[in-house]
Design a protein that fits this description.
By secondary structure, the protein is of the alpha+beta class. The protein contains six helices and six strands, in the order βββββααβαααα. It folds into two domains: about 45 residues; about 100 residues. The strands form two sheets. It has a three-stranded antiparallel β-sheet with strand order 1-2-3. Helix 3 runs antiparallel to helix 4. The chain binds zinc ion (ZN).
């Protein structure tokens, strides 16, 4: 990796290039056969288009995350484990895989970093989680929204409906 001739500014690594070349034959083209979130990284299983050798790459994105301002005004660092706990709790006993929960956490983290602000309220993070859950599972979404927006009766109402197996009937009425 030769240093770029056009490098300017104080950053010693302005453009770090990740080579995805096949470790066996050096071919540049590879197809992605599987891709999943693994901690904060994306793990990709690749297959060389020339010799069909399979190898794995890890891509980590450096995100700059804002400070979270809580309801009472206290500040704390953005914590993806807290996001995960909230999402996992809403998805309890729902057909949502651990992999999906992980990708939701990544999605929230990305959306928050994309806001490019120094501070974000915990309420805004909650709204991001609500809209992400809505895409994945209706029940998990209502559960999270009801706990988050403090409409606890709504969550209990949904749980009762679930217990009665009446959700299907309710969905048909829409
Ligand atoms: Zn190859």
């Amino acid at each position: 990796m030769a240093p770029s001739a056009s490098a300017s500014g104080g950053d010693p690594f302005p453009h770090q290039v990740i080579f995805m070349r096949c470790p066996r034959c050096n071919e540049e083209r590879s197809s992605v056969i599987d891709s999943r979130a693994d901690g904060g990284a994306i793990r990709r299983r690749r297959e060389c288009q020339s010799c069909e050798y399979r190898f794995t790459t890890y891509e980590r994105v450096e995100l700059s995350l804002p400070v979270v301002v809580k309801k009472d005004g206290r500040r704390e660092a953005f914590d993806r484990n807290k996001v995960r706990t909230g999402i996992a709790r809403a998805c309890e006993k729902r057909p949502v895989s651990a992999q999906t929960v992980d990708s939701l956490v990544d999605q929230i983290e990305y959306r928050v970093s994309e806001m490019c602000v120094r501070e974000v309220s915990s309420r805004e993070i909650g709204e991001h989680i609500i809209s992400a859950l809505r895409e994945v599972d209706e029940i998990a979404y209502v559960r999270f929204a009801s706990v988050y927006r403090e409409f606890s009766e709504v969550g209990q109402f949904v749980d009762t409906l679930l217990a009665l197996g009446a959700m299907g009937a309710l969905q048909k009425q829409k």
